[in-house]
Amino acid sequence: MSKRVDRLKARILANIKDGVPGFSESLPSLREQTQIFNETHHVVNIALKELEEEDVIRCIPYKGYKVVAQFAKPAAAAPSGESGVIHVLVMENLVWQIEFWCRCIRKFEEMQPNCKVRPYFIAEKKAISALLKNMNGGSVVLIGDLAKIDGEVATLIPRPEIARVSGAPLPEDDLLDGVLEPLDAFSMPYQIQPPLLFCRKAAGAAKYDPDAGYEKFLDWVAQSYGGNSLAPLNMPLMFDSLGLEGIYTLSREQIGKKLKLLLKLAGKMKEHDLLHLGLPEGMASDMKMLASGQLQCTIRGSYCAGAANFPKSADEITIQPPPREQDGRLIQHVCRMAIAGTSCNALTAEFFRFILGRDVQMQIMKDGLGISPCRSILSEAVKAAGDFAYDIDSVIKYVVKESRKASSHGLPARDGKLYLECANFLIDELMIPVLSGKLDPARKGLPAELAERLVEIGERSHQDRRDRNLRDYFMRNI
Questions:
Q1: pTM, 2 dp
Q2: 64-73 average pLDDT score
Q3: pLDDT in tens, 187-213
Q4: Residues 210, 212, 215, CA angle at the centre, nearest 5°?
Q5: Which residues of 230-252 are buried (b: 16+ CB within 10 A; e: fewer)?
Q6: HEC-encoded secondary structure of the chain
């Protein structure tokens, strides 16, 4: 424990002496430092108490920790550059996303006539790193998939520093449950892209109940639209909603029960010839075919209504929650925003807050790009449901329900590699053979065979993880 405290004290002291943003004159809160340093509340608290005893910092009631004058250092000056210019890196490359951000930038420049926003639309990781290196530490707003950011190339500004520079707190308390990463003190969610069902409105279509599960959903598709109507299913999404995300943690009996259901579903898809296998390759081809009437239903793992020029064509298309089983779990993709650089200036912080504001957040939803993570804005959207070209109310209710479910669900956090291994195994060994007619869904004993092999995959991975955890433990405590 003492070694962990000593290492943490050294890191805090180095940040103070170097004038790192957020540590130059005052320190982030105790909770925020647990996120910044990925340490426990207890270790951070001891380190701060010892630094206070050493007269490096001083705790001021209701104001937090302040750096003692002799150690205080002005924040690092912003690298020289063009005055009044904000650099914005958008890590999204879809046409409708780029068009949306261009409109946002024009709106901000109208609000700030003395300011110029310089956007960069780059989605490839190496190109992103090259751009940030060329910025030489200048402030850059990052929008999109922050996993593409190389931590050795870019220094991210802590949220408390962005709030301090902007002169107002960020809307952290207004966010839905589970969308603010517990160990991330450097970013804010601005958008949720939930998995959803998109389907053409059909006269006489039966009532759709997402809680009835996948078997009833397939019956509904066959009854409402007939054969060749459903886009090839997003299999990982389907497995999630069947409760298969944590399949390797279940008993053999539980796995066998789920596999029997999966066999039944594959047989029903084949019996009714539901899958439309003639989709062309290309980004969002299913959405484009849906808009043109060549396809009737598609389930997507992200909210990309913009791909089909929604909401203009939404008078013919409805957007609803996807089918799910009672013990299923659907992973909602959360888009995040951060600021990189050796300092944060007021204009950059103001643009950051602008993206989180009501106007941009409402437009994200009206353009069919996603759902705001802010409760107050969602409540406003529900009250103004008539302003939307699709059933925003049911979509928001689903998103809110799933965000709460994700934060309290008993399943372990997704192990990406293991999950993919299980999903690929089920696709190769069960779904494709049934759909291609090479495997009879009525074959006896098959679920038991597959259950054994899935358990083996999980047990092997758990052993690997246990070994890794032991190594991590010893590395942190020696």
A1: 0.80
A2: 73
A3: 999 999 999 999 988 766 778 999 999
A4: 105
A5: bbbbbebbbbbbbbbbbbbebee
A6: CHHHHHHHHHHHHHHHHHCCCCCCCECCCHHHHHHHCCCCHHHHHHHHHHHHHCCCEEEECCCEEEECCCCCCCCCCCCCCCCCEEEEEEECCCHHHHHHHHHHHHHHHHHCCCCEEEEEECCCHHHHHHHHHHCCCCCEEEEECHHHCCCCCCCECCHHHHHHHHCCCCCHHHECCCCCCCCCCCEEEEEEECCEEEEECCCCCCCCCHHHCHHHHHHHHHHHHCCCCECCCCHHHHHHHCCCCCHHHCCHHHHHHHHHHHHHHHHHHHHCCCECCCCCCCCCHHHHHHHHCCCCEEEECCCCHHHHCCCCCCCCEEEECCCCCCCCCCCCEEEEEEEECCCCCHHHHHHHHHHHCHHHHHHHHHCCCCECCEHHHHHHHHHCHHHCCCCHHHHHHHHHHHHHHHHHCCCCCCCHHHHHHHHHHHHHHHHHHHHCCCCCCCCCCHHHHHHHHHHHHHHHHHHHHHHHHHHHHHHHHC
Model confidence pLDDT, tens digit, residues 239-256: 888 888 777 677 888 888
The residue assigned the tokens 């529900």 is 382
Model confidence pLDDT, tens digit, residues 140-175: 999 998 989 988 888 899 998 899 888 889 999 999
